[in-house]
């Protein structure tokens, strides 16, 4: 979860998000050195009244300021491509959850579990808790009435779609942002590394109440997750 006056990304809770943070830090470092280098040259040329003519027009200089930027771009592109392949990695998942976007709430279906009282797969809707219904410890405009519970250190597959218009299921701490498109089933996979409460929001403008359909994910240990499943099946 983000904090007041935070500068940067949220604290990561998945291997993919950690790699995204590393890539961002690396790119910022490269940009900083480029900025300092270019600024120093500009300042030196403005201060110095005498400029060598070979510095303004020379084949060697032309080659240098063409090759060096190309090398820098390759160094940025390679980790970016590796990270893209990591995001699309296909691996066997231990748990599958289907998420459906609505105007304006999310519904979740645990396709691996059957609920006797529902006589169907375990499923529920998650609505934002109104401000006048908040209890102590709840977060305004972020908490929902039914939290999505997942086990930690488990490979999770999320299937995301929409029942009406375009939505986007986004969980910054996990490095996940997936479009919910009507008639299309998109998927993403991740591993939550530690327990806790994590927040996200719809990241696609979907109507008047777009900003009032938050996502709350509660990551627990395996035994707590099994107990939660059993309590919701009966």
TrEMBL record:
GO terms for biological process: ATP synthesis coupled electron transport. It is a multi-pass membrane protein. Keywords: Copper, Electron transport, Magnesium, Membrane, Metal-binding, Mitochondrion, Mitochondrion inner membrane, Respiratory chain, Translocase, Transmembrane, Transmembrane helix, Transport. It holds the Pfam family COX2. SUPFAM superfamilies: Cupredoxins (SSF49503), Cytochrome c oxidase subunit II-like, transmembrane region (SSF81464). This is Cytochrome c oxidase subunit 2. The chain crosses the membrane at residues 20-43, 64-87. It catalyses: 4 Fe(II)-[cytochrome c] + O2 + 8 H(+)(in) = 4 Fe(III)-[cytochrome c] + 2 H2O + 4 H(+)(out).
